[in-house]
Amino acid sequence: MNVMNIMLFGAPGAGKGTQAKFIIDKYGIPQISTGDMLRAAISEGTEMGMEAKKFMDEGKLVPDSTIIGIIKDRLSQEDCKKGFILDGFPRTLAQAEALEVLLKELNMNLDKVISLNVPDSLIVGRVVGRRVCPNCGASFHIENNPPKVEGKCDYCGSDLIIRKDDNKDTVEKRLSAYHEQTAPLFNFYSERGVMVELDGTKEINEIAKEIFNILG
Ligand code: AP5
């Protein structure tokens, strides 16, 4: 594959961000994480960020119109011509349909949707033990995937933080939103023949190897 347009699909904490980092390192294509983009807008204090924050803090999805707008701007940028990794988008049928229209306008295709399958019973522990880098977006886990130096990002050395929505109550709400609004997209992409399922409970490097085999 010359140009690789990939989507990582899965519940909160399934390992999308973790695997995106491996793909970036190997293939040099940008990660488009709507979650990271929204968090950046919150740190910058933009009006859009402040509005999105209300939904994110409650574990709810941000309105489609906001998300579709930011994706439209991002996918139109020059660096996406060599490929991209969608992480956390689309999350509703309206977003998936808008993405199809946008890709057509940009003369692009979606090559693969990689679903990381992880049972709900593992998700809360993963998310509550997560530590993230506010600078480069890398994520670690205090037990499953600790950073080389405690509290510091392996990639850029910044101090790691705990995301505001990474607490048990909010994760349970995010999981409900996932099952109600996002999980149905599994069939949407299966019908289009681009869906590949992986066991997201395997060891992190093992999953990365399986993804590289799929991408070639
Ligand atoms: P977002 O930032 O997208 O969060 P999410 O989808 O909930 O996903 P996470 O970042 O929690 O998980 P991940 O799959 O990346 O897992 P990770 O690799 O870090 O969205 C946040 C919020 O923004 C949403 O709730 C919503 O409000 C809003 N939003 C964003 N996009 C939106 C959209 N399109 N529409 C509407 N609203 C939107 O891994 C998790 C942990 O597990 C880490 O600690 C990691 O080290 C560990 N881990 C990873 N893989 C493994 C493994 N194989 N074994 C053991 N541990 C592992």
Walk me through this protein's architecture.
Residues 33-62 are annotated as: NMP. AMP binds at residues 34, 39, 60-62, 88-91, 95, 163, 174. One of its GO terms (molecular function) is AMP kinase activity. With 216 residues, this protein is an alpha/beta fold. It has one domain: Rossmann fold, CATH 3.40.50. The chain has 9 helices and 7 strands, in the order βαβαααβαβαββααβα. The protein has a 5-stranded parallel sheet with strand order 2-3-1-4-7, sandwiched between helices. Strand 5 (130-132) and strand 6 form a beta hairpin. The longest helix has 15 residues, at 168-182. The mean pLDDT is 95. Residues 10, 12-18, 34-35, 38, 55-56, 59-62, 67, 88-91, 95, 126-127, 129-130, 139-141, 144-145, 174, 200, 204, 207 line the site of BIS(adenosine)-5'-pentaphosphate.
Keywords, separated by commas or semicolons:
single chain; 216 residues; alpha/beta; Rossmann fold; five-stranded parallel β-sheet; two-stranded antiparallel ribbon; 9 helices; 7 strands; 47% helix; globular; binds BIS(adenosine)-5'-pentaphosphate; nucleotide biosynthesis; Adenylate kinase; nucleotide-binding; zinc ion binding
